[in-house]
Predict the structure of Heat shock protein Hsp70.
Amino acid sequence: MKLGIDFGTSNSAAAAHIDGKVVPVSFGDAQQFRTTVYFPEVMRDPNDFELTPALEQQVDELIESGRRSARAAGATRSQEQLRSDAIRVVRRQWMEERIREPRSSTALLQNAVYGDDALEAYFEENEGNLVQSPKSMLGYNLHPRAKQTITGIATHILEHIRLTASRQLQRNVRSALLGRPVQFRSSIGAAGNDQALDILRSAAMAAGFDEVDFLEEPAAAAMHYHAVSSERHEAVIVDVGGGTTDIAHASVGGSAAPQIHRAWGIARGGTDIDLALSLAGYMPLFGRGITRVPAHHYVEAAMVQDMTRQRDFRQHNYDAVELPYGPRLQALQDTGNTARLYRAVEHCKIALSSQPNHNSGLDFIEPGLSVDIDAPHLTAAAGGYLSELETLLQQVRADIGHDPAAVFLTGGMSRAGYIQQAAAAAFPNARLVHGDPSFGVVQGLALAAAANTADVGAA
C-alpha cells in the first residue's frame, strides 16, 4: 500500500486508497495538522557563557552598530550601556545555538509536538524550538548545517505521518507518493527545485519510507476531480496553497484515465498575503512607516517561517526607539511573540473571508493593544499576490487558446472570494467548480498512489 502525502506549507495531510475508497489519516480529531513542530529543550545555564575572542568581536560590532543607531535617533548612550546590551544579545544568541545542538533522533521524535498543539506547547513552555512551514525553505540557498537541520525537521514530520498512518491503518506503511508544487519557493532558481526534492526524498527515506515518488500537486488535484466527474471534459485545475500556486490543464472524467496536458506554477500563495497583511495592518503598531527602524526589521519579524530572519530580528536593539514603539518591538522579540502575532494575522485573514471586519487583541504585546482590520484592507494587502495570479491565469488562457469546460478550484486559499473572482474572470465561459479546499490534493494523491501514477521524471 502506498500512502499519499500532502506535505504542505501551512497544513499537511495523508490518505490511502483502500477497498475502493479514499481513507484519510486522522491526526487527533482532525484530518490534517499545521505543518509546525515544537521540540522542547532544557534551557542551558546562562552562567556557562564565557566571552571568547570570536564572541568579543561580535560584541564590538554590536556596540558600534548601537552607537550609530543612537546617533541617528539623536540619543546619547554610554559605552557601558552599549556594551551591556551587546553582551546580552550575544549571550542570547549563544544560548539559542546551544539549544540547536543535535540530539538523538529518537529523543527529538519522542518529545516533539505537532500542529496547533505545537504552538500551544511553545507558548506554555516559553522555551525550546518552534519550526513553522519548513517546506517554504526547501529551495533556498542553505548553509550545509541549515540544510541538515531542515532535512531533520522534515524527517520528523514525515515520520510522524508514517507512524500515525501505520497505527491507524494497522499495517507498516513503507511506500509514499508525495505531492510537490510545480515550482518550489527558491532563492537559487531552478536548482531550488532539485534541492527541495533531494531534501524531501532524503527526509522520507530517513523517516522509514523505502519507496518515495512525487506527483505535481495540480495533477493530484486533477485525479481527485476526475474521480467525481462522470463525463469526459477539459478542465483547468487551480490549486492555491499556502506557499505556491499551481495550475494544470487536463482532460478528466469518464472511463479513460485523466490526462495532464501541461502545468504552470508560481512560488507565491497564502503566506505572501499573510506577510502583506501583517506589514500593512499590524506592523504600524510597532512603528513601521513612523519610526526610523529599517523596513526590513518588520519583514524579519513577520516571516516566522524563516529561522535566519527570526534570529536576526531578535538581535536588534530598540532601546533608542521612541515610545510606544520601542517597548512594543522589544516585547515582540520575547520568546513566542512573533508566532503569536503571525497566528493573529492568520485568524484575521480567515475571519475576513466570511465577515466584513475583524478585531485582533494583542495583549501579549501591551495590555489593551488591538487592531481593527476590514475586508477592503485585506483585499488591498492581497493586491500584489492577486496581480501575479491574474498574470499567471492570463498566461494559461493564452497558452491554451480557449476557455475549458470547467475551472476546478482547490487549496486552502480557494475559499477566498477574491481568488474565486480572479479565476472566473480569467475564464468567463467556463463553469467554476469548487473542490475540497483542504483535501482535494491529498485525495488525488491517494488515488494516484493506488494507480501507481507518479511524476517519476520530476523526482
Summary: The longest helix spans residues 144-169. The chain has 16 helices and 16 strands. The CA atoms of residues 62 and 180 lie 42 Å apart.
